[in-house]
Design brief:
The chain is built from 5 helices and 8 strands. The protein is α+β, with helices and mostly antiparallel strands. The protein has one domain. Strands 1-7-6-2-3-4-5-8 form an 8-stranded mixed beta sheet.
C-alpha cells in the first residue's frame, strides 16, 4: 500500500501534469492545488506571476513543510513557509493543522533565482520519467516541486535524489536546488545529524508561525 503522506502529495498536485524527460510546455492546466484545503491560492498557469512551491516530505514525520517563492508581475519576490500537520484515520489522510509565516532570503533574490534557473528548476523532468533510473527505496525523503511560470503549471517529484546524483544529472540538479534553498531560507533538506534535526524542528515549531484552518 502506498505511503499515505505520498498520497497526500499526489492529491495536492492532481491538477498538474508532471514533466517528462523531454521539455513539455503545459498550457491552461487545471489548478495544481486544493487551495481552500491548504489555505493557498490555486496555481492555474495563468497570469504574469511566477510561483514556486517545494514540499519536503520525510517518511517518518507527520509534518510536511513547504517553501513558497513568488515573483509578482512587478518583478518583486517574496517567500513564505507553510507547515502542514497531518494525521490518519481509517487509512484516510486528515489535515490537522496548517501554519504559515513570511520568510526572508539570506541570498540576494536575483542571484538566487538565477542560480535556480541555471539548475533547470523550471524544466527538470519528474524522477520517474528519467530513462534508466530505478528507485528501489521504499522510504526516506521526497521533494515535490510545483511551478507556475510563463503561463504554464506543472509539477515533478524526486525521492532520495542524493542516492542517484552521481549517475543522473537531473538528481544532482535537484540536490543542488535543495542546497541553495537551505542556504537562502535555512530549511534543512536532509535530516542527518543533530544540528540538522534541531534546525528543522526550530523552523516547523517556530512560535511566529500563524495557524490557519485547513
Amino acid at each position: 500500500m502506498k505511503n499515505p503522506l505520498l498520497i497526500l502529495l499526489i492529491v495536492i498536485s492532481c491538477g498538474c501534469q508532471t514533466k517528462k524527460a523531454e521539455s513539455i510546455n503545459h498550457r491552461d492546466q487545471k489548478p495544481c492545488f486544493d487551495a481552500k484545503r491548504f489555505g493557498l491560492e490555486p496555481l492555474s498557469g495563468k497570469g504574469e506571476s511566477t510561483h514556486i512551491r517545494i514540499w519536503y516530505r520525510h517518511s517518518f514525520l507527520n509534518i510536511i513543510p513547504m517553501i513558497s517563492m513568488r515573483r509578482s508581475s512587478k518583478q518583486e519576490w517574496s517567500a513564505e513557509l507553510l507547515v502542514v500537520t497531518v494525521g490518519l484515520r481509517n487509512d484516510s489522510m486528515l489535515v490537522e493543522e496548517v501554519k504559515r509565516k513570511k520568510l526572508t532570503s539570506k541570498t540576494n533574490w536575483k542571484k538566487l533565482h538565477n542560480k535556480l534557473d541555471s539548475l533547470k528548476i523550471y524544466t527538470l523532468p519528474d524522477m520517474d520519467a528519467i530513462p534508466g533510473l530505478e528507485d528501489g527505496w521504499t522510504d526516506g525523503s521526497s521533494y515535490h516541486v510545483e511551478l507556475q511560470h510563463k503561463n504554464s503549471c506543472y509539477s515533478y517529484r524526486y525521492h532520495l535524489p542524493e542516492k542517484f546524483q552521481k549517475e543522473f544529472w537531473q538528481a544532482k540538479h535537484m540536490v543542488e536546488i535543495l542546497q541553495e534553498l537551505e542556504r537562502a531560507f535555512g530549511m534543512p533538506w536532509q535530516l542527518e545529524g543533530y544540528a540538522a534535526v534541531e534546525k528543522f524542528w526550530a523552523m516547523v515549531k517556530d512560535p511566529s508561525l500563524e495557524p490557519e484552518r485547513p
